[in-house]
Amino acid sequence: MRVATLGSGSRGNSVYIECGETRFLVDAGFSGAEIARRLAVLGVDPESIQGIVVTHEHRDHTAGIGIAARRWKWPLYITPATERACAPLLRGAETIRHYRGEEPFDLGEVTIHPSSTCHDAADPVALTVTDTRSGLKVGVATDLGRATTPVRVALSGCHFVVLESNHDEIMLRESPYPWSVKQRIGGSRGHLSNRLAADLAVDLLHPELGGFLLAHLSDECNEPEAARDMARKQLERKGYRGVVDVARQEQPSALYDVASLVDTVRNGGPQLEFFGQVVRPPVAPR
Ligand SMILES: [Zn+2]
Ligand SMILES: [Zn+2]
């Protein structure tokens, strides 16, 4: 199972997941041309994608769903309420496959478990994706507002998690945003701060968790190093030896091979510390 973000942040989000011959996106918040360009960076042919699972209607997650569904005939896996909220993006020519919050469904070789989140959208979800053969489980959890108990339970046992780490609480407080915007971002139906993301990451720890990819960072109110340091410090205190990386807005992340990350933590941690430089296990190109 391999996972990458095509890009992540308030100007567009999309996660690429492949498992055997099954390839799909979670969200597509970029233009059609950008989706194609970013897939090409990962060496993925758009024709090989089998659909987009849409988590909620906010444009940073859906800007490209209509065009991509029409251009490449990708089915849209979407809840009925999110589809209604996405009406301006759809022209009726798209293939729609409805799913419902909390009801698992199959997509090729994986089972997807949606889990309702606390976020200011019509019917927002976080997802876990389980390889039906190996049992490997990947979480995609952004736009969380707060990590509710059901979301924590849903994410437990993941081997790799794309996890929202949206803002630094002090940077948000001191930002030039109007008070109402600060309230929205930092509120219980907005976005998860670095501190709350690190708390959740620690909660999810188990001996076979191979990596966290911190995502949906705010341009204005976060720094990649701040997000990574907060999570890494708390995780390492608990003995975690896996990967902690940060997804960028402008470019795809590395393509993480989940099985090899899990193998590495099973064998005592990747990380050959070399003069303070962390050397990651290589991710083999296909
Ligand atoms: Zn959102
Ligand atoms: Zn978002």
Can you describe this structure in just a few lines?
The protein is an alpha/beta fold. 28% of the residues lie in helices and 24% in strands.
Structure, described:
- The chain has a single domain (2-258), classed as Ribonuclease Z/Hydroxyacylglutathione hydrolase-like (Metallo-beta-lactamase, Chain A, 4-Layer Sandwich).
- It has 286 residues and is an alpha/beta fold.
- The protein contains 10 helices and 16 strands.
- It has helices at residues 32-41, 59-62, 65-71, 80-85, 149-155, 169-173, 179-186, 194-204, 224-237, 258-266, and strands at residues 2-7, 14-19, 22-26, 52-53, 76-78, 96-98, 105-107, 110-116, 125-131, 137-141, 160-164, 211-215, 243-246, 256-257, 272-274, 277-279.
- Helix 8 (194-204) packs parallel to helix 9 (224-237).
- The longest helix has 14 residues, at 224-237.
- It has a 7-stranded mixed β-sheet with strand order 6-5-4-3-2-1-14.
- 28% of the residues lie in helices and 24% in strands.
- 51% of the residues are buried.
- It starts with a strand and ends in a 7-residue tail after the last strand.
Bound molecules: zinc ion
The number of distinct structural domains comes to 1
Secondary structure: number of strands: 16
The shape is globular
Classified in CATH, the superfamily is: Ribonuclease Z/Hydroxyacylglutathione hydrolase-like
Please summarize the sheet with the most strands.
Answer: 7 strands, mixed
**How much is the radius of gyration in Å?**
18 Å
Strand order of the largest sheet: 6-5-4-3-2-1-14
CATH class: Alpha Beta
Helix content: 25-40%
**Beta-strand content estimate:** 15-25%
**How many helices in DSSP terms?**
10
Poorly predicted residue ranges: 272-282
What's the end-to-end separation, in Å?
12 Å
Which fold name corresponds to the CATH topology? Answer: Metallo-beta-lactamase, Chain A
